[in-house]
Amino acid sequence: MAPVVAIASWAAADTGDDRQFVEGEQRGVQYLQPLTKLLGVLVASQSAAVRGEQVETAALDAEIAAVERVELRHGSALSTRARWPTLRDSIKELGQRPGAPGNEAYQRWGQAVDLTVALIRRVGDTSRLILDPELDSYYLMDAGMVRLPEVTQAAGQLADLAVVNRGMKAEDPRAAVLRDRIATNSAAVATGLGKVVDATGDGQVGSSILSPLDQFGAATDALAPSVAVAVMPPLPDNLNAAAVGVRDASQRLSQTVWVELDRLLSARLDGFSVRRIQIYSAAALGLLVAILVGIVVWVRRRPASAGSPPDTGNFVSTGRHSSPVGLGLEPPPGQPYPAYPDPNNDPAVTAIVGSPRAPAGAR
Predict the structure, then answer these.
(1) Residue 224: which of 244, 210, 243 has the closest Cα?
(2) Number of H helices, E strands in the chain
(3) Residue extents of the structural domains in the chain
């Protein structure tokens, strides 16, 4: 019985640890979904400030409020309480004073974008999303947390640098580095999400990911062709439009990735619940079998009932009386068993009763 209980306890504890791990990942997904969306709005605001255009502060405020809500729920568990207020305040300051168009705006907004990307990495670490052991969820995490933010940031920087540095060519080292980042991460996203579709075998995952993935691939190829090309072609004539296309496609794919990852994690939690029920059911069945076996063994081994006469040995009849056998009173070999004395002729009985009893039939 004890081994059954021990095994059930160990299995339940192991399932509990797995459940806590996945619940931590879910907190990370819930935080990263609005945070990566905020990154896209920040990159768009940076481009507007660099060009001297109006920054959409309403969009910034809406995304800040969305992150603030998940910060209240999960900030303590994800260790973001020290970083998020700093980032939030700096973004609000930029919304009020975006800076002079050109390099000043590029530098000031670039710092906020860098802080946002760093917070994304931080949440990935503290939620342990970065350690996810499953193939499908790992590549979804890699795309949403690592690759797509890189592409979004690099596309915005490329377009803004072309404004700050009029006449920038494809041969410019800064442009080359940014386009390589876009192409490399885009290829990693395509490979990883392709593995997700193959690994899950889930038609829902395929239908939800493939369309935004195709749009993302087309947008990045227009701005930064595949890393397989020997020499990058010239920059697009309308570089800003191409960069906006990449940013928007990256954001659409990012939100799809988080939805699918949250769905996979929820299904995994449901599986843990089913597994725990199976463990407890098996343990209960094992205990029941052990109890039944114990009852059977006890019934077979219990002593004779109290109403049974005690065993006083074997007796051998010698006529009127019987003599005990097996109590150490056996006569010597060749001698008959002694008969019990007649109580009517016993002096002790006569002394008590007062007179000898007449033999039967003598009255």
Answers:
(1) 243
(2) 10, 2
(3) 26-271, 314-353
